[in-house]
Amino acid sequence: MLGELADRLSDVRPWVAASIQKAFERLMSERNLALGKIAQPVRVAVTGGSASPGIFEVLEVLGRERSLARLRRAAAEPGAAG
What is the CATH number of domain 2-76? Predict the structure, then answer.
C-alpha cells in the first residue's frame, strides 16, 4: 500500500495538504479503507514515530521528494505495508 500511495502522490500537483488529502481519499475509497489504515503506516514511514501533527500537513512540510523517498524506502522493507 505504501508503494501504491507513493506512486499516486508522485502525480499530486500542487504539493499542498488539500491535494495530498485527495490522493489519500481516492485510495481509501478504491480500497475501502479507513484513514487510520493508511495514515498510521505513512506516519511511521515519514516521521519514524506513531504520533505527529496531521499527516497531510506533515507531508506538505516535508516536501514531495523526501516524502516519496521515505514512503518508497518503507515499502521496500520486509514486512512493510507496501
Answer: 1.10.10.350
